[in-house]
Amino acid sequence: xxxxxxxxxxxxxxxxxxxxxxxxxxxxxxxxxxxxxxxxxxxxxxxxxxxxxxxxxxxxxxxxxxxxxxxxxxxxxxxxxxxxxxxxxxxxxxxxxxxxxx
Length: 102
Prior knowledge:
Blueprint: E1 6-10, H1 15-26, E2 30-35, E3 48-51, H2 57-64, E4 69-72, H3 80-85, H4 87-95
Parallel strand pairs: 1-2, 1-4, 2-3
């Protein structure tokens, strides 16, 4: 029997992330979910769930420990009002390596 694939889903507490986590678990993957906040919609299906701020390099290293695949859904997001009024902040937070800011 093949070894179980170990997957990390970042943003696992959000709407799409929690659905992806459930989908992967139902298909036999071992899943670690990571988010900066607790799951919003229902209890997580992840085998392991960690509250981590992934703008910190040491948290990224911890989250990926022993992982085979990563689905990166973590992002600075909000409702349409927030998105429309904070475009530059969202792009910066979601695309830049912020570890150099320390």
